[in-house]
């Protein structure tokens, strides 16, 4: 069986992409929950619930994105 070598350039790119998009998604999720609760004067508890709901949706989107990226991107060479 041939040895497989890690393609560090692609691995670093995938990790950086994941961090960048995760920060953006969770920032939008938290800001949306806060803004909607404030706009409709729903209170602090509803604000936290909306933030949590939107964060779960952001996490789901992030997992799906990373699955697709890992299918396409070659993280190892050889073999």
List the helices and strands and how they pair.
Layout: E1 5-6, H1 8-39, H2 44-72, E2 76-77
Antiparallel strand pairs: 1-2
Helix pairs in contact: 1-2
Description:
With 79 residues, the protein is mainly α. Helix content is 77%, strand content 5%. The protein has helices spanning 8-39, 44-72; strands at residues 5-6, 76-77. Strands 1-2 form a two-stranded antiparallel sheet. Helix 1 (8-39) runs antiparallel to helix 2 (44-72). The protein is rod-shaped and about 60 Å long. The mean pLDDT is 94.
Percent of residues in beta strands: 5-15%
Helix percentage: over 70%
| Contiguous runs where pLDDT drops below 50 for at least 5 residues | none
- Write down the overall mean pLDDT: 94
Radius of gyration: 18 Å
First and last CA, distance: 7 Å
Overall geometric form: rod-shaped
Number of helices: 2
Order of helices and strands: EHHE
Main pleated-sheet profile: 2 strands, antiparallel
- Kindly report the spatial arrangement of strands forming the biggest sheet: 1-2
| Helix and strand composition category | mainly alpha
Number of strands: 2
């Amino acid at each position: 069986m041939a040895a497989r070598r890690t393609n560090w350039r692609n691995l670093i790119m995938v990790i950086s992409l994941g961090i960048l998009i995760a920060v953006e998604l969770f920032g939008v999720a938290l800001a949306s929950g806060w803004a909607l609760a404030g706009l409709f004067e729903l209170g602090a508890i509803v604000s936290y619930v909306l933030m949590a709901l939107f964060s779960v949706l952001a996490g789901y989107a992030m997992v799906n994105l990373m699955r697709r990226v890992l299918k396409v991107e070659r993280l190892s060479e050889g073999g």
